[in-house]
Amino acid sequence: MSYDIMSGANLKVEVGTAGTVLATDFEVVPEVNTFTTSGFESTVINVKTFNSAYDRKLLGTKSIPDISLAVNYLADNEVHQKLEQLADDQTRCQIRLSYYEDATHTTGFYVVYSCFVSTTTIGGDKDEVVTKTFTLAVDGAAIASGLLPLVP
User: Fold this and answer.
1) I need a surface site. Which of 1, 6, 110, 142 has the fewest CB within 10 A?
2) Residue 89, phi then psi, degrees to nearest 5
């Protein structure tokens, strides 16, 4: 099977319980407002060499940048409340990001991270929807990743 290009509209974000194995209790985060990013970066080490016109570069350790998750805030939603509680308790959770090929949500890929919800910020304006942004601080490498659908 070969995949086609994908749209940001076909994204699913889920939160699950942290642990040493992949969570089995993922819950969908409703009303995702902004496109969620994932990936990694490497530390760049500049190597100075005397008597050379150019410096060299090496790559050091990898890290996953913080993920900003903005939602159209539903104050009474259990999953939004769970994200707030995780921030308040300063405990880890697992976040699964699923990117689907189309609106049928049958094929695509996913990645799962262990995260802390490090900040919560509410925002909006007179003629805008009230949003809440959760900053997810990723702890280490991805726990799991692969193609969708998940095969048991």
Assistant:
1) 1
2) -80, -15
